[in-house]
Write a structure and sequence with these properties.
14 helices; globular; lipid biosynthesis; 10 strands; acyltransferase; two-stranded antiparallel ribbon; alpha/beta
Length: about 290
């Protein structure tokens, strides 16, 4: 994971060095560029359960002292599919990734076959595309998601690029969902329930400065971020994963047909309620 953070953070430095090495015929730079070019042609791969449950993720859980809060009615029906909506996005949703690995463990009730929806462009990135594929991620193209929900639950972070910059423009922990109707429409069309998940502390592990307008145009995040010691190492802050009560897709469909698009208000209220839960005396170890 630190390799990913470091490669993104140092890209303005290593890219010129690679190009300089190629220009002067340095074999290592040429080999690196050839490997990247060849990897573009390779398929991303398939879901690899052993990768999702490797010891690395347990190390991250201990690093952040991850805790879990579940709503009293947050029971999972094993015969149904769900859309798990994770908030907030932050510069990198590390809490969401960690939850992706431990919520499917024995005793939690979440399916191990849950997929993660990410932007299609990530499957074009050399080397990194394999990481996402092994974790069980799929493209957020609507036909792909609908096919997925026929057999699997789906995890999403609806805020997208806009959520990356919320911490840059807001002093408080904020989420961007008012104009994000896509996951609600998807739940209605697929007939699935939405289960909101809020990760307290996720937007604080990195500080960020970026260019929202450029990121929207290019459909990929252009930012500079830092954590501990001013490096691309996440701050060691407690992460609290709050799992809310499922919101039935049928009820959402009724509200939208009736002209009441107040589903986002319910999710916002839920997020606010989870803040009060962070001091709950009976937190479970994740």
């Amino acid at each position: 994971m630190l390799v990913i953070f470091g490669s993104v953070w140092a890209a303005p430095l290593w890219v010129p060095f690679v190009l300089y090495g190629i220009y002067h015929g340095h074999w290592l730079a040429i080999f690196f560029m050839a490997a990247m070019s060849a990897d573009v042609l390779l398929p991303a791969g398939e879901y690899w359960p052993a990768f999702r449950h490797m010891e690395l993720w347990n190390m991250w859980r201990r690093y952040f002292r991850v805790r879990l809060i579940r709503h009293v009615n947050a029971d999972i029906d094993g015969s149904k599919q769900y859309i798990f909506t994770h908030f907030p996005h932050g510069i990198y949703p590390l809490g969401s990734w960690i939850a992706f690995t431990f919520l499917s463990q024995a005793g939690q009730g979440f399916s191990d076959n849950t997929k993660g929806g990410i932007a299609s462009i990530f499957f074009s990135l050399p080397f990194l595309k394999h990481y996402y594929a092994w974790m069980g991620c799929i493209s957020v193209d609507k036909p792909v998601l609908l096919r997925c929900l026929q057999h699997h639950s789906l995890g999403q972070i609806p805020e997208g690029i806009a959520g990356v910059f919320m911490q840059q423009t807001h002093d408080k922990d904020s989420i961007y969902i008012t104009k994000r109707l896509g996951f609600v429409k998807l739940a209605i069309q697929a007939g699935t329930d939405i289960m909101p998940i809020y990760h307290l502390g996720q937007s604080e592990i990195f500080s960020v400065v970026g260019f929202p307008w450029l990121s929207r145009v290019m459909r990929i995040t252009f930012v500079f971020f830092w954590g501990r010691w001013g490096l691309p190492i996440p701050r060691r802050l407690p992460l609290v994963t709050c799992v809310g009560e499922p919101i039935p897709g049928v009820a959402l469909s009724f509200r939208i047909r009736g002209g009441r698009n107040d589903w986002h208000t319910e999710l916002t209220i839920l997020g606010q309620q989870q803040y009060y839960c962070s001091a709950h005396p009976n937190l479970e170890d994740a």
